[in-house]
Specification:
The structure is a single chain. The protein has 13 helices and 18 strands. Strand 11 and strand 12 form a beta hairpin. By secondary structure, it is of the alpha/beta class. The strands form three sheets. Strands 2-1-3-12-11-4-5-10-8-9 form a ten-stranded mixed sheet, with helices on both faces. A six-stranded antiparallel sheet has the order 15-14-16-13-17-18, sandwiched between helices. The protein has a two-stranded antiparallel ribbon with strand order 6-7. The chain has two domains: about 350 residues, Isopropylmalate Dehydrogenase; about 100 residues, Alpha-Beta Plaits (2-Layer Sandwich). The longest helix is centred in the middle third of the chain and has 17 residues. Bound molecules: NADP nicotinamide-adenine-dinucleotide phosphate. The site of NADP nicotinamide-adenine-dinucleotide phosphate (NAP) has 21 residues, from loops. NADP nicotinamide-adenine-dinucleotide phosphate (NAP) binds next to loops.
């Protein structure tokens, strides 16, 4: 059983962001159940989301909310509406980034009474998703009028801390296996970083088995044989997509909880959104937020109340009485309030069907505030890639650029279009767009940063073409630090 904590303990202050749409309804429902279970929490209400945007706060979260989160370090949050495709950035993403909540934890567990095509398979795993890096850095540029670029930034400490979080979570929940899932076969440097760093870090956890799985196969395996997974760890976008797929295996977003954790702040929230179609009608299912609150209770060390609430919910789902319309048998759905009353009535009863897990606190490595830097054993500069806008044919462009660098420190090695070499020609039929990469190599590798030569090269190119950006081709510790064409 979970370790009980002292009844004389003080209340823990938690920032409560009710959010948009059904947010206030599921928040109230969750708080009622927690209060009835005797959770010693003190709520500090805070605003974020649509109302903040309406007030002209472009981050979606006013300063008072940020102050409350910084003070309390623990947040229970309802869904926040995000403008799609235009306007302000997501307030969710902003909160995760401001407080460096680098880890997203999504338990995927078969729930009693919720029938899915996978019922009876014993699905019980956790998706640990890196939460602040990757394409979600949101660093994007139009390269030409019709070519967009998004920067995928993956860092070594970002990989190390997410894998350490996965390993710490495995130990806290008595799990045995960590599956690192990446697209390292294609993105060898960025996705490959999670594989390389992860495999290195996990050597320090001999009690845990670990494996690597290519992420597309992981998606396939989650559907074919989901019971094989224990903890999976992924970069941000892969984890975003696969954690929703995983939620679908056990009943969908309406019942899926999550935690966002960092060194100083942990924020617990349902996976679902604001469900505007049912907002204000008293129909919302608070299960996902309630299970998120159970994770919150475990985070603050109140294992006994967490288990009490979780069991009352499981008993309610098992018995199938007074469920909200989204999970009830057809025609038997009840309002949110009746569901809450049923869960409260079931407090103190234990589920006979769901195996009880022992939980301990997640022991996280604290990262120093200093800027992370690792100096490679050696550095060499072997050339530059210049990205430019041109509608010339590759053959004509190749001739022009070769002539342009004649007599300089550079030679033109190749030109590629969206990563595929188009000069010298390889005989394929690559579709050409007006955004090309020209690779120039130094005749001999350089130890300095060759600013003067690169500036001269750009001046020459700029006299005939629009160049967009330049990437240095470096070697760190004797290994190429750039991808081949
Ligand atoms: P959604 O709000 O999750 O709703 C999709 C549908 O799922 C709803 O229409 C409803 O289906 C059902 N549903 C979701 N949660 C439910 C619950 N607790 N109880 C009962 N039914 C539930 O997804 P969306 O429509 O794509 O997104 C709406 C807004 O939420 C968007 O502005 C989006 O940006 C935001 N959002 C926020 C978060 C977050 O804050 N973390 C996450 C996702 C989306 P029926 O209508 O068929 O009953």
């Amino acid at each position: 059983m979970d370790a009980a904590i002292s009844p004389t303990r003080t209340r823990t202050k938690v920032t409560a962001i009710a959010g948009d749409g059904i947010g206030p309804e599921v928040m109230k429902a969750t708080q009622q159940i927690l209060a009835a279970a005797g959770a010693r929490l003190e709520w500090e209400d805070a605003l974020a989301g649509a109302e903040a945007f309406r007030k002209g706060i472009s981050s979606g979260a006013p300063q008072e909310t940020l102050d409350s989160i910084a003070r309390n370090g623990v947040v229970l949050k309802g869904p926040l509406e995000t403008p799609v495709g235009h306007g302000e950035k997501s307030a969710n993403v902003t909160l995760r980034k401001i407080f460096e909540m680098y880890g997203n934890i999504r338990p995927v567990r078969e729930l009693p009474g919720i029938r899915t095509p996978f019922t009876g398979r014993g699905i019980d795993f956790v998706v640990v998703r890196e939460n602040v890096e990757d394409l979600y850095a949101g660093v994007e540029y139009m390269q030409s009028a019709g070519v967009a670029q998004s920067l995928k930034l993956i860092t070594e400490p970002g990989c190390e801390r997410i894998v350490r979080l996965a390993a710490a979570l495995a130990r806290a929940e008595g799990r045995k296996k960590v599956t690192i899932s990446t697209k390292a076969n294609i993105m060898k440097l960025s996705e490959g970083m999670l594989k390389r760093v992860g495999e290195q870090v996990l050597k320090e956890y001999p009690d845990l088995q670990h494996e690597h799985m290519i992420v597309d196969n992981c998606a396939h395996q989650m559907v074919i044989r989901p019971e094989q997974f224990d903890i999976t760890v992924m970069t941000n976008m892969n984890g975003d997509i696969l954690s929703d797929l995983a939620a679908g295996l056990v009943g969908g977003l309406g019942v899926a909880p999550s935690a966002n954790v960092g060194d100083r702040v942990a924020m617990f929230e349902a996976v679902h959104g604001s469900a505007p179609q049912i907002a204000g009608k008293g129909l919302a299912n608070p299960t996902a937020l309630l299970l998120s609150a159970v994770m919150l209770l475990r985070h603050i060390g109140d294992f006994a109340t967490a288990s009490k609430v979780e069991n009352a919910l499981y008993v309610t789902l098992e018995e199938g009485k007074d469920l909200t319309g989204d999970i009830a048998a057809p025609g038997t759905g009840v309002p949110t309030g009746a569901f809450v009353a049923r869960v409260i009535a079931n407090l103190g009863r234990d589920s006979a069907k769901v195996p009880q897990r022992e939980y301990r606190r997640i022991e996280l490595k604290q990262w120093p505030a200093a800027t992370w830097h690792r100096e490679p054993a050696s550095r060499e500069l072997v050339g530059v890639d210049v990205f430019l806008e041109s509608s010339e044919s590759p053959a004509a462009l190749g001739r022009m650029l070769s002539d342009m660098v004649a007599g300089t420190a550079f030679t033109l090695e190749m030109i590629s279009s969206r990563g595929a070499q188009v000069w010298p020609e390889l005989g394929g039929n690559t579709f050409l767009v007006d955004h090309l990469r020209a690779r120039f190599l130094f005749q001999a590798p350089r130890q300095d940063d060759a600013t003067a030569e690169i500036t001269e090269l750009l001046t020459r190119i700029g006299s005939r073409h629009r160049w967009m950006h330049v990437e240095k081709l470096q070697r760190f510790g004797g290994a190429d630090a750039y991808s081949k064409a």
